[in-house]
Amino acid sequence: MSVRTRARAGTYNHLITLLHQNVTQDEFGQEKRSWDEGQPIYAAKEAEYRPTDSFIATSAAHHYEQRLWFRTRKGVAFHQTAMRLRDPEDGDYEILAIEPDTVNREVRLLCRLVKP
């Protein structure tokens, strides 16, 4: 039996901003997509490690796609395709998966850095 503890507020030490997708039409009727800033939230940032990570050669390291988990408290209705996260240190992140955790009352978001 595994024992889980409640999440502590001190672990949420990164201030990130939620981005909401805004779809408008131009004068020709074509869709224009932009990302509007929403509310700032505090989250923990954790790297996702896979079994193949230890076998990556240093020469191929710049081709490696790093995925991160952002862990935060519940209270925001996250939507995978209509939201992104903006980290002031690294840039914008696309949400790949959302995992709610009812025991710790938090949400884990698997994200990938968006290329500018």
Specify the number of helices: 0
> Which spans have pLDDT < 50 for at least 5 consecutive residues?
1-5, 59-63
Note the quaternary state here. Answer: single chain
Shape annotation: globular
Count of strand segments: 6
Order of helices and strands: EEEEEE
| Share of β-strand residues | over 45%
Global mean pLDDT? 79
Largest sheet: 6 strands, antiparallel, barrel
State the share of residues found in helices, binned by percent: under 10%
Structural class of the helices, strands and pairings? mainly beta
Strand order of the largest sheet: 1-2-3-6-5-4
Termini Cα gap? 45 Å
Radius of gyration: 17 Å
Description:
- By secondary structure, the chain is mostly beta strands.
- About 0% of the residues lie in helices and about 50% in strands.
- The chain is built from no helices and six strands.
- It has a six-stranded antiparallel beta barrel with strand order 1-2-3-6-5-4.
- It is globular, with a radius of gyration of 17 Å.
- The termini are far apart.
- Residues about 1-5 and about 60-65 have low confidence and may be disordered.
